[in-house]
């Protein structure tokens, strides 16, 4: 899901930020998350990973980060008050079973389908930002499916293991692929 979201964010003309994009051993991870949230007007949060680990405990990082985003919007200054969020879950209303305090917000269910997450992300960005330059979801889906086919080969040629590619490396490949496609589409 992350790869599809990142591709869509780039294709819609935005730059994705993630705690995965910065590796500074001197910075506390939570401070990094605070900084990213403070600098982002738009946030996409997928709270669908409620699977338990080997000890039987679920990971609560994404719901926690969503809570920080809500807190920044609620208690921040005028800039922070303008934040907008897209909240994904696997199945519609499933969040009510594990985080009922979110009752009343409009989540989007992706059903673990990349095409759905692309469509919902694109549509949300179009509505939230009112940008007229965002292409239709069917174009982004078609481009992403082609990109996904060639990603293993491109990653290998660039010296990466596709199963362990760094977030920043993936982002660079996406940027290059989108820029190349956009450049080629403008040729006569």
Describe this structure in words.
With 188 residues, the protein is mainly alpha-helical. The chain has one domain (2-185). It has 7 helices and 3 strands. It has helices at 2-11, 29-39, 61-75, 78-81, 114-129, 137-157, 167-185, and strands at residues 42-46, 84-89, 108-109. It has a 3-stranded parallel beta sheet with strand order 1-2-3, with helices on both faces. Helix 1 (2-11) packs parallel to helix 5 (114-129). The longest helix is centred in the C-terminal third of the chain and has 21 residues, at 137-157. The protein is globular and about 45 Å long.
β-strand number: 3
Oligomer: single chain
Q: Can you tell me the residue ranges where pLDDT is under 50 for at least 5 consecutive residues?
A: none
Sheet having the most strands: 3 strands, parallel
What is the topology, as strand order, of the major beta sheet? 1-2-3
Order of helices and strands: HHEHHEEHHH
The end-to-end distance, rounded to whole angstroms, is: 35 Å
What are the main properties of this structure?
188 residues, mainly alpha
Describe what is shown at a glance.
By secondary structure, this protein is mainly alpha-helical. It contains seven helices and three strands, in the order ααβααββααα.
Topology record:
Layout: H1 2-11, H2 29-39, E1 42-46, H3 61-75, H4 78-81, E2 84-89, E3 108-109, H5 114-129, H6 137-157, H7 167-185
Parallel strand pairs: 1-2, 2-3
């Amino acid at each position: 899901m992350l790869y599809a979201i990142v591709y869509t964010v780039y294709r819609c003309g935005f730059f994705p930020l993630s705690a995965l994009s910065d590796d500074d051993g001197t910075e506390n991870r939570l401070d990094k998350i605070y900084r990213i949230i403070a600098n982002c007007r738009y946030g996409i949060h997928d709270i669908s990973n409620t699977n338990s680990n080997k000890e039987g405990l679920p990971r609560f990082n994404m719901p926690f980060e969503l809570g920080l985003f809500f807190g920044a919007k609620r208690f921040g200054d005028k800039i922070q008050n303008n934040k907008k969020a897209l909240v994904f879950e696997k199945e519609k209303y499933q969040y009510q079973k594990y985080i009922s305090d979110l009752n009343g917000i409009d989540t989007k269910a992706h059903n673990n389908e990349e095409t759905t997450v692309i469509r919902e992300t694109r549509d949300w960005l179009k509505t939230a930002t009112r940008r007229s330059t965002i292409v239709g979801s069917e174009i982004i889906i078609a481009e992403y499916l082609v990109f996904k086919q060639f990603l293993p080969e491109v990653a290998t040629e660039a010296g990466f293991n596709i199963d362990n590619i760094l977030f920043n490396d993936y982002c660079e490949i996406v940027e290059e692929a989108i820029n190349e496609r956009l450049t080629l589409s403008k040729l006569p």
